[in-house]
Amino acid sequence: MKRKPTGKKYNDDFKKIIVDLYHAGNSVKELSSEYGVSEVTIYKWVKEFTPISSEKGSLTSKELAEIQKENLRLKQELDILKKAMAIFAKK
Known about the structure:
This protein is mainly alpha-helical. Helices cover 67% and strands 9% of the residues. InterPro entries: Homeodomain-like_sf, Transposase_8.
């Protein structure tokens, strides 16, 4: 049997509030029953919005993924430009 999508969309502010409540000591089970969001979804939000700290600052996993995606795009652009330079240098 196929699952029917619920179509619920939550904005980032709501997600951050849930994550803040989780970090304040509320359990995922409590938050799930109180706000009507599945436990799996809450765990996903906690992973997404919890900052990863280092001595230079902190990033969320979402921000880190965006940086990695942009880095990959820039590397691909650089490779294309290097190939173009090689073609024009031969002429």
